[in-house]
Structures are given as C-alpha cells and as structure tokens.
Amino acid sequence: MHAFHDIQFALQADTFHAPVKGQFAFHPDFLLLINIDGDIAATYTSDHPHYADVRQTLVAQDKLKVLEKGQYLMPGLVDLHCHAPQWPQAGKGLDLPLYDWLQNYTFPLENRYQDLAFAAPIYQDVTRTLLANGTTSAVYFASIDRAATELLAQQCMDLGQRAYVGKINMDNTEQCPPYYCEQNITAALDDTDAFIHNVLAIKGNENRLVQPVITPRFVPSCTPDMLNQLGKRVQQYDLHMQTHCSESDWARDYAKQHYGKTDVQIYADAGLLNHKSVLAHSIFLTEEDVSMIKAYRAGIGHCPLSNMFFANAAMQTRELLDSGVQIGLGSDIAGAPSPSIFRAAFDAVSHSRVREEGVDVRLSAGQRGTANARISFVEAFWMATAGGASVLDANTGILETGRHFDAIVIEANTTIGNLRIWPEFDTPRDILEKIICLAQKENVKRVWVQGKDVLR
Amino acid sequence: MHAFHDIQFALQADTFHAPVKGQFAFHPDFLLLINIDGDIAATYTSDHPHYADVRQTLVAQDKLKVLEKGQYLMPGLVDLHCHAPQWPQAGKGLDLPLYDWLQNYTFPLENRYQDLAFAAPIYQDVTRTLLANGTTSAVYFASIDRAATELLAQQCMDLGQRAYVGKINMDNTEQCPPYYCEQNITAALDDTDAFIHNVLAIKGNENRLVQPVITPRFVPSCTPDMLNQLGKRVQQYDLHMQTHCSESDWARDYAKQHYGKTDVQIYADAGLLNHKSVLAHSIFLTEEDVSMIKAYRAGIGHCPLSNMFFANAAMQTRELLDSGVQIGLGSDIAGAPSPSIFRAAFDAVSHSRVREEGVDVRLSAGQRGTANARISFVEAFWMATAGGASVLDANTGILETGRHFDAIVIEANTTIGNLRIWPEFDTPRDILEKIICLAQKENVKRVWVQGKDVLR
C-alpha cells in the first residue's frame, strides 16, 4: 500500500456531484484523499477493489474523517455575480424600476466605500456570509474605489475564499451620476493596472486564490475608449472579465441605438471576451450572440431571482444549456436578496417552469408559455457547481482526482431550518432536490477551499 | 391609573402591522397590554399622553417585557393552505406533472397516515416547524383517515397553535386511486360528523383554538352527492370549509366538462361557500366567480410558489386585491417546498412581477406581460397577516385592542441567516421588506398564540 505521505487528510462521505451536465452522481461512503496542496489526490468508490485497504491505511495513519450519516459532501458552490458593496441593500427597493433603484439606492451606497472604515465591516460580513452559505468561489463586483476593492480582495484572502474581485470601471458622464463616475480615463486605467498588480501581489497569493477581474459595469456606463482599453488588458494579461450583458429591454436598446450592435458584439469587438469572461444575465441574446459566446468560450452568469425583478423577461436557460454555452449561477446581490446559490439554483428551476407554463390566464394554454422550457434540479445543481467552475476556467466544481478540494457538507436534522430527509422515502435524487429546495446557511456545516477548513 | 389586575403581561416593542390593505404601520416602542385571556387589552403609541404613566405602572407591577432594539414585533403569520401529511415530500418531485406527482408521491404517502405510529412524529414535526417559522394560524389539509386527523388536531392543541384542521373527503372512484378513496359515502359522512364532534370536544378547546374544517379535496375527486352533503354540514353547523379552486387548466376544464360550471359555481350550488371558506389557488376565475366569492364573503388562499410549478399560470393577484376579495397566503406544502409564510409573501411579489414583465424574450416588451400587475411587499405582508385572518374570520392578524394576541418577534443579527438591518440606512419600510425577503426560521425568536408563549 501507499504510505500516503503527501496526504493531508481523507474523508469518507456520502457524496453528490455533477461531473456531466444533466446528470448527477451519488457515491455512498466515497473516499476522498486530499493532499498537502489542498488538491484531491485520489478518490475511491465503495466498490473499488482497493477501498478496504486504502481505508484501513488511512485509519491507521489517523488521517480519515468519517462524516455522520445524514451529512452530505458536495462541491462548493460558485457565485458568478455578486455586488459586494450592495450587501446592505439586500432585500429592499425591489419595488423600484431598475433606473430608480440604481440612482436612489445603489450608486449613493457604492460611493461610500471610498471610506475604508465604512467598507471594512460590510465587506467582512458579506464575504463571511457567502462562505457560510456554501459559496467557495465568488465573483465580486466591488465599487469604483481601488483601495476599498483591494481591501475586499485582502479580506477574501484572509478568509480563504476563492475570489474573483473587480474594481468597477464606469466613465460615461452621460449615464453615471457626477459623484460616482471616473472622469479621467487615464487615471482610471492607471488605477485598474495598479489594482491588478496589487491583488496578484497579496501575500500568500502565489497560487492566485484571489484574482483580479476586469470589470466594465455595462455598456451604457462606459465610453467606447474605456471598453477598448480594458479589452487590451484582458488580452495582454489573460485576465478574467465580468460585466452585465443584455440584462433588460433598456440595456439591449441602448446598445443598438448607440453602437448598432448587441452587447456581445460590443464586448467582443473591444477585446473583452475570452475563455474566462462572465456575462451576467444575458437575457436578450441573438443566435449570433450565442455563437460568438461559444466561439470565445466565454460564459454566462445566470441570476434568475434578479431577473424576475429587473430583467423584463426570463433567460432562455433551456436553449442555452442545450447549445453547450458555459453557464453558472449568480446571486446578483442586491438585485436579488438572497446570497445563497442553492436559492439561485431553485429559482433557475422555478423561473424556467414559469417560462414554460406562462403567466397570463387570458391566453389559452398553448399560447401562454414556451413548450419544453423547463430545466431540471440536476441541471441547476450542475450550474451551481461544475458549470460555474467551468465558466471561470477554475479547476474546481467536481470532486475528482486532480481538482482543487473546494467542498461543503450539508446536514439535515429537525433542529435546523426546514430541510428534512427521510431515509425511508428519499432516493439520492430526492435528497439532492430537497437540498436545493431547502438548504440554508445553518445546514452548511463544513466548508473547505483548497483543502482548508474555512468556516469559522 | 389602572391597577391592571387583568393584565397578564405587557410588551414594549418596535412593532409592525398592516391594519389596512396596502399600508403598514410602524410603532416604535409600542406598548401592548395582554390580558389573562390572551387578548390585547390596550395599546399605546409612544406619543400617547398616558404612555409614560402606563409604562411606569407596568414596570412597578413587574409586568413589562421590553424587546431589545433590533427585534421587531409583528402579527403571527397565517398559512391558509398546508397539506400536513405531505411534509416528507417537501422539496421533491417538483419536476413532475401534477397528475404524476399526486399519483406517484402524494396519494401513496397520504394513505400511510392510517398508521398512527407513522403519522405522529411527522405531524409533530410539521406543526412545530410551521410554528417555529412564525405561523400562528394554520389551515391543514390532512388525509382521509379520521383518527390520524384527530391526532393532528390534538397535537395542534397541545402545541398551542391556532389550527383549522380538515379530514379530507374524496369519493369519486373515477379519479381517486382505489386504495385511497372513500367507497361508501354514508360511512365517509359519519366519519366527518364524528370528526367535527371530536375536534370540538378536545379537552381545553372551549374557545375553539382548534377548529374542524369541511374539506372536499377538489371537484374531480368528489361525487356531486358528496359535495352536496358536505355543503349541508357547512350551512348547518356554520363551519369553515377548505378546498382547491380552479388550480390548473385541467381542473378548470374538468369542471366545465362534468358540470358545465366553474369550480366556484359548483361549490356555491353545493352550499359549500360561506364567510370563512378558503378557496386555495383560484387561478382561472371568471368575473362572475369573483362576484360570487365576494357575495359569500369567502376567501382565497394564494399559494404563489406552488403556482409556479403546478398552476399553469399566475393568479390575478393585483386585480383580486383591488376587487376587495378577501385573500391570504398559503405555503401549499408540498406543492411548494417552503413552510415559511414570509417566503410565500416574497413569492407573491415576485410572481406578480413576472406576470407584469412577462417571460418570453421573443415578444416585444408591450406584448410580453400584463401592465400594472405587480403587488407591493406591503400588500404581501397584509395578506400574510390581516388578510389571512380575515379569510378565516379570525380575530387576529392586527395588533390592536380586542384582538387575540397572536404575534411573533423577528430578530436580525449577523450570526443568524442572511437578514441584515443597518439602522443607518434602513427605513421602517426597508426593514419590513428585508424581513419578508430574508427572514427564516432562525430569525423567529418568540411566538405567542392567544397570549401564550408557544415556541419551545
């Protein structure tokens, strides 16, 4: 047998993951061996011929932790779209139209983050809260302020969360309020360059647990020059990029009127798209847009709950999943109130169901919705884990040999929340669906990022 | 000053309630005096001329409990539609069409409740869980088994939950599975009569904390004779009645094809409607249906999350609220997975927004949805409290003199769930919206029913 010198610890756990879109795997008493780098060194299903021997060796070396029955191991969740500074706004103002919501709530709030004493406790709470909800990888839209955004990156590093952090760029004086707008493109780009450098230089960030993300807010808030200059940096440094894409009728029409193009074309032409770009929302895509996103191997951050409030329509999730475009999920704090990616997964299913059924009782059943638009809970789980990781080009999201060990443990019992599992009735598929429907922060008992226990 | 001999205790609390549909009231440091019967004997806003004197007397008599800042008192929540025996099914099978869902999951499960040893722990957990989520009044659809349903009623009594409990009647052999169908109408009605008698005779139930409810499952599952016989009992004993009403295309068409009438007309003609009837769902109502529901002063149990999965369309909530029909909310466990009426309130808002915006990107913005269909969070809160109480003709739902004291305390802090309140940013309206969006079981710190502390 191996001596397992390089093994940090091992787990024996009833394990869910979704290596293939549309399918899930359940491995009872799965053995996972985590090496000293925090990667998965090996896995053994309970029917593997070496299972008993490996297990015995691990026990002898005091390296095996056995999860209790009723606890389930699964990949950590991936949040592709979270506006960290909007955290105090989560759950209010949702009655407002998007424009009023931004002007009256969001921009004045985001502008306050230039005060680091204001920023620090809020950023600390939002990052901890996401982690406690099981989000091991988070893509953060911060604010236009560099220092506060670097603070956010540092806090993610300190906390041990895999994070993709962006200092927002927005310089179109016609669309941005005067108090919250970069008025000098050179200074803004210098700030962005310094931000990239400083995040990569964070102490302990040699393996890039925390990565800088180029972050043009969206087409209307940027000048064409800004988009092009940011695109150059994406290409030159091979950086992640995040932005909003065709989120609403207004955003789609703005692009058409000002550029004669779609958002996707504008981003592509500016050099902003690559194999790790996150296009949040992506509601009103044309067929050409979809082809272009696929050609660049860019990805979509689907934010279903926010879409119900602000997007004017439902994303074509069914068709996009079938097209092979990379898709993951986003909380879109605070366009939606919940920081839970389980909730996003649930809402992805329910919004797809509403799209299939339609809403208008005055129409006949056949006219009301879009046939076969539903997605399954298993597909939603895939988006929440492997799909999201794939968008980020991250080696996580699946619990298999060679991946970073980013994982969570879900526990169900009658003292916590509303998730109930009855072993007598519930198949593995049922258990997975119930977790997506009902797991909340208190059900997340353990969180590991890169093999490190980070739930404190 | 009064001696307050009849006062059991008093509270000083930052208090929300919604006495008027579409409005909310926030009373900081509201004083509520609860008498020995558990009713609200008096209230004082902090600007009342006697406030200081009353408060001083209460303190002197050691009768005043002062809630901490960051805790909010509000009326207990009302769940108008909960299938208690479906609790183990919450959060699974939602991918299925309604027919398969009923036949493969629900009916086999409900049928098992004839085994009281099976029923007892599940009923215990669901009633406790609803109470812990802040539901002080619950309307339960149980199963066709009388003994198990009496057990449920007894458990509600023991727990101190205000409950409206129904033994299901379903006798149409063409629609019900053979193993789960009342084959003898006389025996079924005798059972129903015995059930009514036995619930009213529960020890300690002199004030009818727990009430029997006439419960025809829905039109397809009952013979016309059954509906008529049940209607006679509603009229004769002035009983509550609950049923499903025009929940889906199929249900609506069934009524048309078999009776040439709508569900509402069928129920009215059978004598089933009165001033405390609960018509769950009520999606496909005609104008005549709405007039008839109003004429009988019957009410609607709106179950928005379940509707997203099973109703084929969105309820016309905006128009129904404007029409003055009585409406409250239902969890519809397990047609929806969450037992929280805060969640139902949130989903009522979001489904109304989806209805307003529409879902189909292929249509123009003007064609996509129904203009002005949205409802507000404040209206949803009214439905969750005063509206629901009004449907039941219960003297609860508003924290005013003369009402029964059914109330909850919501607490927000960073150690619990995801609800965050920043006094610096959040107006009372913001706080109320945040509670609706994010409060979960763990935020419910105190629950009183009829003045009794029932959260254990």
TrEMBL record, chains A, B:
Keyword Metal-binding: yes
One annotated GO molecular function: guanine deaminase activity
Domain Amidohydrolase-related: 72-452
Cofactor section: Zn(2+)
Regions that span the bilayer: none
Domain of life: Bacteria
Keywords associated with the record: Hydrolase, Metal-binding, Zinc
Cellular component GO terms held in the UniProt record: cytosol
Any one GO BP annotation for this protein: guanine catabolic process
Protein name per its UniProtKB record: Chlorohydrolase
Organism: Photobacterium aphoticum
Lineage, uppermost ranks: Bacteria, Pseudomonadati, Pseudomonadota, Gammaproteobacteria, Vibrionales
